[in-house]
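[09:14] KT: can someone run the structure on this one? pasting the chain below
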Amino acid sequence: MANPTLEMIHGMLYGYGIRLGRLSGLGRIIAAMSGTYPDHVPFQGPQMHDHAMTVARVPARKFYWEADVLVDVHLAVCRWYGFDSNTITFDVYNLEVEALGAKMIYSDNAMPTVDVSNPLIKSPADLEKYGPLDPSKGRIPYGIEVAKQFTEKAPGPFAGGLFCSPWSLLCQAMGYPPAVRAMKRDKVFMQALFDWAENQAIWPYMEALRKFGIKNAMGADAWAAFPNLTPELIDEWVIPSSVRMKERGKKELGMAISAGAVAGDYCEEDPGKFDKDIMFKCWDVVAKTFPMKLAASAMGRTQDWNMHWLYEYATRSGKKMPIMGALNGRFVRDSSPEQITDKVREWIDILGRDGRFLMMIGNIPADSPPINIHTAVEATRVLGRYPIAANLSSIAVEPPQFKPFDEWLKGQPEEETILKAREWKSADRKVFT
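[09:31] RB: done, structure tokens below
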């Protein structure tokens, strides 16, 4: 097994000009983050749980209930695509509310989701009904086991636990309209809601993760994206909550807890409403909550952004922050390989010439054509090779050559787990309900 510590040291040295040996994927990312530039622009592993499940052709009733299936599928699909890091995710917004008794909708073909027709919390009195969370309930043990297997099978800085951050948890527990209404009109109730989310709904899960040896956990917070919340509301509510959880995790558990991840993600859908000043404020928020300080795009309509704005933001202090350029998932799904290549070419030309640039896809929809993801990775490696060519339009990117997943899977470490998971039939559903 590779040694992630040595890979990171190699990446740091390479990024600072001591370019010896061949970089691993992790080393390439560290070189881009901490130094100037690696051998080529890294391609960070994206969020892709439903897509990975679809590529591997395993049923949701196995993928979202059995940690070894979810972890092995992710590791295999990440390697098949050639990403520079392993990213393992699941329906992280659902585990806590599910364990607390939320009504859920389950499917044989897609991730579980909360049934919003009957929310857990309708009034302040309901806070007394739920919590503290029992970490033996629902799929919390699955979340713990995913974290354990991720840490064991793919150790490194990206491995650890996943949870739902307080604000997004409240949106799951009561619905977004009532939650944002309370945030704007009833601060006493909202503070009680955050206290409940942090201390009753999430903290027992963090204690359980730490008990099983997990030293870090990241809390996703997509409901805190713009325009769901303004940067001002995020600063008032989400950032203080993130700080509280971080400080308590360090003090009581010796654990790195990062709540509010990707809060402030700029997700305005109308390009006519794009606002540079608001973008800058949102990127300030992302820099505060993300575990690594960077200028990041994530789930937004990034294909229509003026990337000169992102570059200006990243370099405004005189020293370039690392930039994460995330292709929009729908853009990747719905575009031609040629359009994807052209977008990668444009971004590398604007954002990557002086290094400290990483590519990724914000989220890969289940039905995305694999050729499009392979194309994004190949285009990044060809066009992003350092030093970047003076005229990128002169660099041809040939269609990527790859084996179909099932052919590639033969002999891989995850083959047995994946083939066995495919044997599940709908008649076995009772096992999971």
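[09:33] KT: thanks! The longest strand covers residues 256-261.
[09:34] RB: yep, looked fine to me
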